[in-house]
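=== RUN LOG ===
request id: a7f3
mode: sequence -> structure
chains: 1
length: 175
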Amino acid sequence: VTIKGWWCVAWITLWPALASAQTPSWTLRPTESWLVVRLSPKTSSLFSGLAHPHLVRAMQFSGKLSLDPADLSTCALTLEIPVSGLRVDHPEDRKRAGMDGGPDADDQKTIDEHLRDEDQLDAKTHPTIRFVSERCRKDGVVEGTLTIRGKGKKIIVPMKIESTEAKVVAKGELQ
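=== RESULT ===
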C-alpha cells in the first residue's frame, strides 16, 4: 500500500515486564495504551480539498520494547497489529487527538470497511501489520522495517521519548 502524506502519532504506555540490570524491557498493553495513526490527504492531489484526515486507532496490538532512558541507542521495538483490530474515525479517538468533526456513523462504518478491502490493507490476505526496529539513535530516531500487505519498507521515525520506571511515552511523525 502506498500512502502519501500521512502523519503517525503514537502515544504508547508500556509497563515493565522484566527487571534487567542492563536494559529495562516493557510489554505493550493495548488496554493501557493509545496507538494511533493520523492519515492526511496528499495536498497535491486533484480532490485533496474535498478530503479530510482520518484517525486510525489500534485497539489490539502486541509487542516488546527494551530501552535504557540514559542511552536511547539501546532501544529495540517489535510491534504487531492485527488489521481486524483497527478502529477508524471513532468520535472519542478524534476528540482525544484534537481533531474536529469527522464522518457520521454511516460514513464511519463505510470507511472502516474500505480500510480492510483488497485494494487497501487487504485484511483477508495480510491480516497483520508489523514493525521491527533495526537501529535506534541517541537522538531518539528509530529506524526499522514496517510491513503492510506483506511488503516491508524501511522507515525512519524521529521520536520524542519520555520514560520513567513505570511507563514510556513515545511520539513520532513521518511522511
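=== NOTES ===
The longest strand covers residues 151-163.
DSSP finds two helices and twelve strands in the chain.
=== END ===
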